[in-house]
Amino acid sequence: MFSHIFVGVSDFQCALAFYQPVLGALGIEARFLDASRPWAGWQSQPDPRPLFLIGRPYDQQPHHPGNGQMVAFLAADRAAVRDAYAVAMANGGVSEGAPGLRPEYHEHYYGAYFRDPDGNKLCVACHLAES
Question: CATH code at 84?
Fold first, then answer.
């Protein structure tokens, strides 16, 4: 469905220091890093798309997080949700909802919500029953 998702950031090095460990906790591999542009991308597995990208906004204007916009990453299990959330909190993230069941979405929805250092809202979710 998606080719890529791009999230604007204001301080690339700060954002990189946040996203590298969070995406690493989810097992999402880096595809490229170009600090001169600046931007970086991570790829899906086993296919190379969709990509998740961070960088300076294309129009070179200051970044502003959107209200009502969120990027949600799929976690393999509930432990991965907890791990990614802990890594996010340890690397400058701000909690928007600790890991837990969200039965208002569906019976097995287990997610965590947080903001990156630029205020972009993110989610890590697992849709499987705990085994």
Answer: 3.10.180.10
